[in-house]
Amino acid sequence: MTPYSLAFYLDVITSGTVLGLAPTAGPEEVTAVLGTGFAENSTSRGSMWRDYGMVEFFWERESRDHPWRGHHFTLQVHRLPAAWGGSTVNPVIRGRYGRFDRHLRYDKLERLLDRRGVRLEDVPDANAPQYSLHWQPASQVSVMARRTTRGERCRHGGQLRGDVHAISSSMSAESVAWYRERYGPGKHA
To answer: How far apart are CA 34 and CA 36, in angstroms?
Structure first.
C-alpha cells in the first residue's frame, strides 16, 4: 500500500473527519468537498445517505420541514478488493492521497497509529469472532477488522483475515460502554 493512502486512513482515525468533514457535516457541505459523483439513498422515516464510493455519509431529520443533520460516516474499506482498478475511491480523495491498495491490514494500521501515539481500544462486539471492533476515544472513530481462520476468504470481494472491513465515526463513549456491558466477557448476544 502506498504511504499516501495509509496517510488517509491515519488522518481519518486521528481527526474523526474525512478531508475535514465531520460526521455532522450537512449534505451540501459534503458534496462541496467530495463532488457530485454520488448515489443517494433515502427512507420514508427521515434518513438519507450518500455513497461516494468507499466513503458514505449519513443524515437524519425529523420531517421534510426540518434540515438534514449529519449522523455518521463510514469508510467501506471492504469494497476495495472487489473494485481493484475501479472507482471505489472518490476522485477527490485519490487526487490527494494517490493509489489505494486492495487490502488495509489492521496490524499495520495499528502499528502506524501507535507510532503517532494514537491508541485503539478493543471493544466487544456481536460480530465476534468473525470480526473485531476497535475504538479511538479522542476522535470517536471505530475500526472493524476481519478475523476469520487463516486463508479463508470472505464471499464479498476477497477480503482476507486481518483486513480492515470498515472505519466509522462517530462512536461515543456511551456506545462503547453499552457494547462492553452487552457483549463483554461472559456475555452472550
So the answer is: 7
Angle of helix 106-115 relative to helix 3-15, nearest 10 degrees? 70
Residue pair 70/23 in contact by the 8 Å Cβ criterion: yes
Q: What is the pLDDT of residues 77-125, one digit of tens each?
A: 988 876 654 568 999 999 999 988 888 999 999 999 999 999 999 999 9
Is the backbone peptide bond immediately before 124 cis, with ω within 30 degrees of 0? no
- What are the cell numbers at 185? 466477557
Distance CA 153, CA 5 (A): 23
Residues, the chain, total?
A: 189
Q: Rounded to an integer, what distance in angstroms lies between the CA atom of residue 106 and that of residue 88?
A: 20
